[in-house]
Amino acid sequence: MTTLRDAVGPYFGEFGGRFVPESLVAALDELDEAYRAAAVDPEFQAELAALHKTYTGRPSIITEVPRFAEHAGGARIILKREDLNHTGSHKINNVLGQALLARKLGKTRLIAETGAGQHGVATATAAALFGMECVVYMGEVDTERQALNVARMRLLGAEVIPVATGSRTLKDAINDALRDWVSSVETTHYVLGTVAGPHPFPTMVRDFHKIIGEEARQQVLDLTGALPDIVTACIGGGSNAIGIFDAFLDDASVELYGFEAGAMASSPVDTPRPSPSAAPASCRAPSPTSCKTKTARPSRATRSPRGSTILPSGRSTPGSPRSAGSTTSPSPTKTPWRRSGCSAARRASSRPSSRRTPWPARSASAATGAQERPSSSLCRAGATKTWPAPAATSESSTRRGSSCDRLQYQ
Amino acid sequence: MIDSSTSKVSRAITARKDAGSGAVIGYLPVGFPTLQTSIDAAVTLATNGIDVLELGLPYSDPVMDGPVIQAATQRALAEGFRVRELFPAVREIVSQTDVPIVVMTYWNPVSQYGAQRFADDLSAAGGAGLITPDLIPDEAAEWIAAADRADLDRVFLAAPSSSDARLRQAVEASRGFVYTVSTMGITGARSDVDAAAATLVARLREVGVENACVGLGISTAQQVREVLAYADGAIIGSAFVRALAEGGLEHLAAVASDMASGSRVS
Hints:
Structural class of chain B: alpha/beta
Family (chain B): Belongs to the TrpA family.
Strand content of chain B: 5-15%
Order of helices and strands of chain B: HEHEHHEHHEHEEHEHEHEH
Strand order of the largest sheet of chain B: 5-4-3-2-1-9-8-7-6
Pfam family, one (chain B): Trp_syntA
Oligomer: heterodimer
Keywords (chain B): Amino-acid biosynthesis, Aromatic amino acid biosynthesis, Lyase, Tryptophan biosynthesis
Distance between the termini of chain A: 40 Å
Helix content of chain B: 40-55%
Protein name (chain B): Tryptophan synthase alpha chain
CATH topology of chain B: TIM Barrel
Structural class of chain A: alpha/beta
Shape of chain A: globular
Number of domains of chain B: 1
Function (chain B): The alpha subunit is responsible for the aldol cleavage of indoleglycerol phosphate to indole and glyceraldehyde 3-phosphate.
Number of helices of chain A: 12
Radius of gyration of chain A: 20 Å
């Protein structure tokens, strides 16, 4: 039986495919073939597993946060600590996998885009590990904002190229990385940092990150004896989210919620989870995924089961891609802590198949997570009140029923 | 190629081939530096010997374009250009010249606008077809159907890295001509047009191409002459954009006329 977890692309429902210049297709075919071989090659998998054990520091631990949970209303909240990986984020999972593949393909140079710098640091690290040349494209605005990560990449031997075109942020860095790749594809592998871009990138990035959820699922079972009611993840481009969600896609009782900072949306995204018998690739026309938006104004929120959704105000995520066709870019914010949507309802009152995370819609509207959050979280529902909003709301923010709030660092 | 008899572009290229040479195709973005000037500039190319006009649709993520065209299209967007303004612009140019107009656009704006609606509106405005740099034939079923219904040309790209099977696919999916990418790279003037272009045209001939037009890096009349020795058309972009940006319509006219001389049989 085909389940969503088995979907291998190039299409995921109406999303997926390849919307890139012809010049890149041969390289994508080569990569696809190499990846499919590596995916079933015990030697490759053993090499990657050994690297994760001795270099990344896997498995990453889970941490229960009782005081935070109490503060947030009482649900059991457990964090999956991808922040404890080498280089400080989940990005290394994917980067090591792709770097190994690049080496197999005989490529000697890695290029990457980066927003805040986490993916750039991870790529620079992998390039240093394997003795490869490394060039990281980073929006000029982001290089100024994230000078520390720029310094770190340079220290690792990478060349960081500030991108001054367009909005001078992440999407322009991706454009320049693609332009580089079109011209250098013979010697160069483009280490795409998120579940976007042309096939096979979404499939491959999902697979390299699914270890997050596989570990977390078992760790929570070991700790609590049951599956979590809810799994939440922050969404930039979606690699962190699909990494933890993937292992739970076939667990109908587990609700999945994605949170995206800087929402400007007027409506939440509600992505139905296909029934297990549904074919993963539908016959509908695929949509562009290569750093492009599917809709003019991408929705950037998740849905509250009760129909009420708390939306962050209209600010952009630093380094996040703009929607296509837009010619003005909201200025980035440095707002520290913000309350991001509350979304968990009691499992008993939910209809498991009806609400889902924005995945895979995210792959069409955003390219790469600029501000990757360190952890995903797993909640055991059971709380009866929410954390009061920092401003204005008080009594009204306390809702009946169970809820699971979560703070996001923006 | 499927029934190229209805293709205005194909007819224009054939006419130049019959005259013993090949076509010169000129690119300029619509909306740069202003909408009206871009219309006048397109007409200027047509009246100075350019055989086919390639009108670029400004887009925020032009991954196939080098710095000159990026800067121009970015400025057009900053000046407020919108996709819907393309169609009246095409109509206006068509009213002033018989030279066929193909629109060069990334796929996302067409997808957003609606492929059939885009095709119908372009056809109604008198446009001849689309060049789609990031739409490969594998993903183009919707566009091919829409273009067929609107009787528009559809130009796909062939690259030096394309396999023979992919070249055959590009030839079969294209109508009008096949955009032959001269080098592994992006748009912009180069001192030498890559030798890979001649090889690629020869490979396209082997799989039955009717018109192979070479683009990327062509910026002098001498290069036009060299390319037309083996190809059916030479595509010039950045050199025209730069001429317009630096010297206005008058300078553009002189540069166009010079480029066109590269296609005249001496």
